[in-house]
Amino acid sequence: LLDLRKAQSGQSKLNLSKIELKNFIKEVAENFQEAARTNQIKLEVTGEDAIEVLADADKMETVIYNLLSNSFKFSPPGKRIEVNILKKDNAIQIVVNDEGCGVNEADLENIFLLYHESEHPNTQQLKGSGIGLALAKELIELQHGTISAVNREEEGLSITINLPLVASHVAMDEKQKLQASATANVELQLQNNNESVEEKKDNEKQLILLVEDNEDMRSFLVLNLSSTYRVKTAEDGLQGLAMAKKIQPDLILSDIMMPKMDGIEMLDRLKNDQETSHIPVILLSAKSALESQITGLKYGADYYISKPFDNELLYAAMKNILDQRKRVFGQFVSKQKVMDLGPSQIVVTSKDELFLQKIIAIVEEHMTDPKFNIDAVAETVNMARATFFKKFKSLTQQAPVEFIRDMRLKRAKQYLDGGMGNITEIAYTVGFSSAKYFSTCFRTLYGISPSDYLKSIEAAGGKDA
Predict the structure, then answer these.
(1) Yes or no: is domain 345-464 CATH 3.40.190.150?
(2) Do the beta carbons of residue 362 and residue 400 sit within 8 Å?
(3) pTM of the model
(4) What CATH number labels 2-182?
(5) Which of 231, 262, 271, 402 is exposed most, by the fewest CB atoms within 10 A?
(6) pLDDT of the chain along its 465 residues, tens only?
């Protein structure tokens, strides 16, 4: 995971040396001898002896290991896997052939993309992280090589690596140039929108719940989201549902195909539970079919991203949903009324609107009672105090006690505007137990004391007269 991140960010440096390929690959292949025996798979390394290449040994070992791992994963027992080495034109080729199920033709151009998962009907039980081949591609390209895949005519897949043929007597200064060029700018796919994002303190970051059953994928996403968000994880939909209720995240990022409970069922339960209906959900899935996306959206998903996907798309979707939600609810709360939501504001569900509407009505009904507080509101809506607090703050970016206080102050301002009593009377009318505390809160919210505000109203009235 760290290797892939470094490779894609341009931080991975090459340590070049001459490698005699056949013996080198045979040593890597030794790691698979037990798997070959267990599955009765014939593993061979063939081709010309004494072919040398100038490359990074550690990175080449990772590449060959990942390619062989992929071949073993998709090869049935009794089949053959061959690694062939040959010189062709001005390049050295390493070809990995297997006799597995192959890849759908439509998928061939995507198998080296990050997060890609095959939709081949024979591979559904072999769900991968989509990281191994993506890393192989990045490491080969760092060494000025190419990698490609084709389905074999008989059966299986053929993956070909092409590396430039470099003379063994290459000068040291040329070697250094090659090393330098390998660390040149590589598009930083794993950062947020190519922007310089300032590191925030953990307690200031928004909280993301990642629900993903694949350990590699889960670790990789955590690694890359943690600079911007706090991230908690769950391994399946059942665990994700429980975690969502417990931690009340700002957003949920979830796979669909998972054990125990899939992403769609989890989504349905989240959206039909008052405690979690407000949490926006982005679904990730290898299922790209339109009807699969429609299903997710019907059940209340806020966004649907098909694998493989570009990281910038994911980051942009997350940022837009969170920013838009904050903006819309800010308008909602400040106006204290149900908004006429346009199509671009579908992240706000009707259940969330009704919830806030109900809270506003409760506060208005009990506003004159100075003892009325968050506990009374939570009890009225049949929610535990802590759960109510988390949900309300997630929706409005404001603590309930602040919201109640601000509603009282806004009502007080209306009374002052209408000349409906003196400052002390109005303070008690809107539920403050102390006129002095009321004045302090009024100044904090409006930047002016109640007495000075009254004077400004009187002065304006005198001018009008």
Answers:
(1) no
(2) no
(3) 0.54
(4) 3.30.565.10
(5) 402
(6) 445 555 544 555 678 889 999 999 999 999 999 999 999 999 999 998 888 888 999 889 999 999 999 899 888 899 999 999 998 878 899 999 998 888 877 777 777 776 555 554 444 434 444 577 888 888 898 888 999 989 988 788 999 999 987 643 344 344 444 444 443 333 333 344 344 344 446 667 889 999 998 877 787 788 778 888 999 999 999 999 999 998 889 999 998 888 899 888 999 999 888 888 888 899 887 655 566 667 767 777 888 887 767 778 888 888 988 887 777 666 655 554 433 333 333 344 567 777 887 888 888 888 888 888 888 888 888 888 888 888 887 777 778 888 888 888 988 988 888 888 888 999 988 889 888 999 999 999 889 999 998 888 877 765 554
Spell out the domain ranges in the chain. 2-182, 202-325, 345-464
CATH number of 202-325: 3.40.50.2300
Rg over CA atoms, the chain? 31
Q: How many residues does the chain have?
A: 465
Distances (CA, A) of 333 to 84, 353, 366, 369, 396: 67, 10, 18, 21, 7
Amino acid at residue number 148: S
